[in-house]
Design goal:
Elements (H helix, E strand, L loop, with lengths): L1 H7 L3 E5 L11 H15 L3 E6 L8 E4 L2 E5 L6 H11 L7 E6 L14 E5 L6 H5 L2 H18 L5 E3 L2 H10 L6 E3 L19 E5 L8 H11 L7 E5 L5 H10 L6 E5 L3 H10 L2 E4 L8 H8 L4 E4 L4 H4 L6 E4 L2 H13 L1 H15 L4 H20 L2 H7 L1
Parallel strand pairs: 1-2, 1-5, 2-4, 5-6, 6-7, 7-8, 9-10, 9-12, 10-11, 12-13, 13-14
Antiparallel strand pairs: 3-4
Keywords: Glycosyltransferase, Transferase
InterPro entries: Glyco_trans_1, Glyco_trans_4-like_N
Pfam families: Glyco_transf_4 (PF13439), Glycos_transf_1 (PF00534)
């Protein structure tokens, strides 16, 4: 990757994002950004990542070879980051990567260097799930009406073809959108010992968009076919109390476990022990838990939504469900049919074999390098050089 950066004159690159990897609410978007930053730093780039404040962590630091600046709160990070970039508080970068996770930084209005924008997915009905009504309307209006106009000339990167289709429907230019899937860490491989009883695993933040309540109810229905089925959900979040109440209401404490935050090693062990990895989310750009588990040979049962339809090869490496009844039926089928499970396990591994973080980081850097070339060739810059 160093050759791509050098040819385009990219030595110092700034990444701006809402949250840092060390934030208590960090998820797939933060893992994605941190992994790309690490690989770029390993390739010899001078990388700075600017995010909001992370609880219990200093404002400045280094991680995996790149610089981290964590300042301002959840909402102030947007104007303060823009101001810092305009003032060149941390120097003038050769390129900028805006990671748009919900609310954009509006980099087209202030950035004066080549840039690309990583938009994991369209939020759509997520706004109503995570914000009060008035703020939800603002977020929805910005995403559907304002941002597509402001970003119409920007080089956009998203994770899946289905997310690209949603962006095009909003008015983004298809020729300016690259699809770059996330990678899978090499540590996710088959191994360990499969759980003695049918084990369904869900992983992610306990937030409204993940709809773990649907998964719990679907698992309860699936137990009519697979009576010894167990469900383990890894992750923390604001809905922990509500999910505990639901589990108690279903008298499911003996077979549903909320294990909270887990280490990387514990997550790998869960993937390997699971008979099925499951997601009942209503909105995803990709859902890396599905492809990480697939690399371990664990098939998926998931909702049929944008992102999932690309992360899961339906019928080959997992089964996608159109509604709650089908979600339950798929869980019952995979946990009760060893031949189906074996076929989906092999298909899951084959499907995800091509996803590597090196390819992800290289593709994003290539897009940024191409934008740097376009920037250099602009007529007004040639006039200034003359």
């Amino acid at each position: 990757m160093g050759d791509i950066a050098a040819a385009a004159g990219l030595q110092r690159v700034h990444l701006i994002a809402w949250r840092d990897l060390d934030d208590v609410e960090a998820g797939g978007s933060e893992v994605h950004a941190a992994t790309v930053a690490r690989l770029w730093a390993e390739a010899g780039l001078d990388v700075l990542m600017r995010t909001s404040w992370a609880q219990g962590h200093p404002n400045h630091g280094r991680r995996d070879g790149y610089e981290v600046v964590r300042k301002a709160g959840r909402y102030q990070v947007f104007p303060r980051t823009a101001l810092a970039e305009v003032r060149k508080t941390y120097g003038r970068p050769d390129g900028l990567v805006e990671i748009w996770n919900g609310m954009p930084f509006f980099s087209p209005l202030w950035a004066t260097v080549p840039r690309v924008v990583v938009l994991h997915h369209v939020h759509a009905d997520m706004w109503k799930m995570v914000l009060p009504p008035n703020l939800a309307r603002v977020g929805d209006t910005v995403e559907r009406r304002v941002a597509p106009l402001i970003y119409r000339r920007s080089r956009m990167i998203t994770l899946s073809p289905s997310s690209k289709e949603e962006m095009v429907e909003l008015g983004f230019r298809p020729e300016r959108i690259d699809v770059v899937p996330p990678g899978i860490d090499p540590r996710f491989t088959p191994g360990g010992t499969l759980a003695a009883r049918p084990l369904v695993v869900g992983a992610g933040r306990l937030a409204p968009v993940k709809r773990f309540d649907r998964l719990i109810r679907a698992a309860a229905e699936a137990r009519r076919t697979t009576p010894d089925l167990e469900l383990v959900i890894a992750g923390t979040g604001p809905l922990k109390g509500e999910l505990e109440e639901l589990i108690a209401g279903l008298d499911a404490q003996e077979w549903v476990t909320l294990v909270g935050r887990v280490s990387d090693e514990e997550l790998l062990d869960l993937y390997r022990r699971a008979w099925v990895i499951a997601s009942s989310s209503v909105r995803e750009g990709w859902n890396m838990t599905l492809t990480e588990a697939a690399a371990c040979g664990t098939p998926a049962v998931a909702t049929r939504i944008a992102g999932h339809v690309d992360a899961v090869a339906d019928g080959q490496g997992g089964l996608l469900a159109d509604d709650d009844a089908e979600l339950a039926a798929h869980l019952a089928a995979v946990t009760s049919d060893p031949d189906l499970r074996a076929r989906l396990s092999a298909g899951a591994r084959a499907h995800v074999a091509r996803f590597t973080w090196e390819a992800t980081a290289r593709s994003i850097l290539t897009a940024l390098a191409e934008e740097a070339e376009r920037w250099r060739d602009r007529p007004w810059r040639a006039w200034r050089r003359g």
